[in-house]
Design goal:
It is a single chain. The chain has 533 residues and is of the alpha/beta class. The protein has an eight-stranded mixed beta sheet with strand order 2-1-3-4-6-5-7-10, sandwiched between helices. A two-stranded antiparallel sheet has the order 8-9. Helix 2 packs antiparallel against helix 3, helix 2 runs parallel beside helix 11 and helix 9 packs across helix 10.
């Protein structure tokens, strides 16, 4: 069985036990169990590591006398110091996943799982308030929770197989993706499609420095950035190093991110709490070398009217009714002197002239803040019909650290709307590895980075174009790639119209949902005081 087959089989088994529980609720206990299995296996594997160190003459723990070593072995294995120094969580015996398997048929399994998570949090301060502890409230059919535990138990970490640790991270990511497809529109709160994350990472190329995501969701940007760094250490012949910083608005989603980092063996600073990046910024003094983010599109409720004097608005005050340009300026403000950012936004951000957005965009372009724009295909996202694009900002477009080519007063436009040929489902597509490489190489050749191949950059009609600021001004500072690469203007006009319709549809759906919820509350209130409704 391949890794993909294993992940798919595991998902099918876990999801088959869901019953009437919604995907939105079910993901927390399932991912919580994946996490518990991971930390339990790592804890058991660390005990073997300690025993081997005691018998290794080159280890600081080496005990030469075999008899004394045998007598001392359990004392060392029970000493949490030797776990903490290797960043392994301390797991009490009664909280281990094996203990949950032993109790899989017990009527109080849910209570035991809640207790296990509570014990692990108590023993590991960095996990305080992170783990799922509501198994007792989960409305699964009798016996299904035990079956779910036995399903997750099929994942095994083998310390002799260096790649086996990765399976936990891969399963966690795969499950997140599957839950996102199940949840539809709500998935945008916690998940960015892997294809979009990969393109952001391949172009931004995070390798050494501080990385930041102010709307970090479940942490996919961080994980993929680390994978990029690891993959390029050999080809570049030097060691990369990334420090993770992030913030998340939703408490439950923040927990998903912290667990995601943990199962990938990563540490990160997500601030002291969840909360709005605009009104409760957890990293005010941070200056990041790389910023990757997929903030919520077109949000109207972000307290913009209370932040008109905020020092982050260096290009002008963003409209209170749409946070797109607040996100762009926040991230610009958090970049280091050589920093670069990649941001997913709705297509409307490239051309809107309403409520000061056109002024801000003009100031950003003239201020050399914008480096590259990428138009994305439709159907990359499972959770929204609104067409999306990628903004790449740079604090330094001159020749030097960020590339051999001086790109001051220039912007690269890439139209990728017709590139993606991979298919995830009937309604969702993705970029293939070949397509990701092709698109990222356009940027790296243009900028002259160390990640570029030997080919020179060339404008390609219908695909990419290096524009001057004068070119952009002639288009009234519209940043839609189709206007520059040679695609017919009518395509851009149709795309903008489709986005407006999709945005209006999404807003109308939300209003209907809110209205329905309000009607239900009124009906229940009236029934509570004796009225028949």
């Amino acid at each position: 069985m391949t890794d993909e087959d294993f992940k798919r089989t595991l998902w099918d088994a876990a999801n088959g036990l869901r019953g009437a529980v919604s995907a939105a609720e079910y993901k927390y206990p399932v991912l919580g169990l994946v996490f518990l299995k991971y930390v339990s296996d790592m804890f058991d594997a660390q005990a073997d590591v300690i025993r081997k160190r005691l018998a290794n003459p080159e280890s600081d723990l080496f005990i030469e006398d075999a008899e004394i070593r045998a007598e001392s072995e359990e004392d060392f294995v029970d000493d949490r110091t030797f776990y903490e120094t290797d960043n392994v969580f301390w797991i009490p015996r009664e909280a281990k996943f094996a203990a949950m398997v032993d109790s899989a048929t017990a009527p109080d399994l849910a209570q035991k799982l809640d207790k296990a998570m509570q014990l692990i949090e108590a023993e590991n301060s960095q996990l305080k308030g992170v783990l799922y502890r509501e198994f007792s409230r989960l409305a699964l059919e009798p016996g299904k929770l035990g079956e779910l535990v036995n399903t997750i138990a099929r994942m095994r970490f083998n310390p002799k197989d260096h790649g086996s640790r990765d399976i936990f991270g891969e399963v966690y990511e795969y499950f997140l993706g599957q839950f996102a497809m199940s949840e539809g529109q709500r998935a945008g709160e916690f998940y960015t499609p892997k294809s979009v994350v990969n393109l952001l990472v391949e172009i931004l190329a995070p390798f050494k420095g501080k990385i930041y995501d102010p709307a970090c969701g479940s942490g996919g940007m961080f994980v993929q950035s680390m994978k990029f760094k690891d993959a390029h250490q050999k080809t570049l012949g030097r060691k990369g190093d990334l420090a993770i910083y992030g913030q998340e608005l939703m408490a439950h989603t923040r927990k998903l991110c912290l667990m995601n980092l943990a199962v990938h063996g990563l540490d990160g600073d997500l601030g002291k709490s969840y909360g709005s990046t605009f009104t409760n910024d957890q990293h005010k003094s941070l200056r990041a070398d790389y910023i990757l983010a997929n903030p919520p599109f077109n949000i109207s409720k972000w307290d913009g009217d209370k932040l008109t004097e905020d020092p982050r608005w260096v290009f002008d005050i963003p409209p209170a009714g749409n946070a797109n340009y607040a996100w762009l300026q926040h991230m610009w403000n958090r970049l280091s002197s050589k920093g670069r950012a990649g941001i997913v936004l709705a297509n409307g951000s490239m051309s809107s002239n309403t409520s000061n957005e056109g002024v801000i965009r003009k100031n950003m372009i003239k201020g050399n803040a914008v480096e590259c724009m990428v138009a994305l295909p439709a159907q990359l996202f499972s959770n929204t019909q609104i067409p999306a694009c990628l903004w790449f900002l740079s604090r330094d477009k001159s020749a030097g650290t960020n590339g051999r080519s001086d790109r001051t007063n220039q912007v690269l436009f890439i139209d990728a709307r017709k590139i993606a040929s991979g298919r995830l489902s009937r309604t969702q597509i993705e970029f293939t590895e070949t397509e990701l490489h092709k698109l990222s190489q356009i940027y790296h050749r243009w900028r002259g980075t160390e990640f570029a191949d030997d080919a020179d950059y060339e404008d390609v009609p219908g695909l990419c174009y290096s524009a001057t600021i004068d070119d952009i001004e002639s288009h009234n500072f519209n940043l839609s790639p189709g206007r520059y690469v040679g695609a017919a203007d009518v395509e851009d006009d149709e795309a903008e119209y489709e986005e407006e319709m999709a945005t209006l549809t999404a807003e109308l759906s939300e209003q209907i949902k809110t209205s329905t919820e309000l009607d239900d509350k009124i009906r229940k209130a009236l029934m509570g005081v004796g009225y028949e409704v």
